[in-house]
Specification:
Length: 122
Amino acid sequence: MRLKGAPNRARIVGLRPELVFAAFVYDELAAAAGVPGQLREITAGLDSTHTPGSRHYIGAAVDLASHGIPGNRYTFLLDLQAALGPDFLAILENAGQPNEHIHVELHVVEPFSPSTTEKGAH
């Protein structure tokens, strides 16, 4: 996996650590699907222009290349979402357009709270 290069280089400094995990999961699934390394790419982090209120601006979203994914990209997206779990939201944005990409954001709906049976366990 690589970062999108100049002139619109992807910036990852300041991303939440959870997004690094998401990028690794994407890379693993894309490699298993046969996507060559040069096409497995982070296309945006804390850079570029995004919609107002975008989670990119707080380091809680990353965009990932989708063009090299063989077959049905929505199937890949479902596999990615399942692998990431409920704390993430994966969306195929701009489908069929030159700037098509997978947008992944940290989407914690319910923060972790140990149950009473887990309290005190080490």
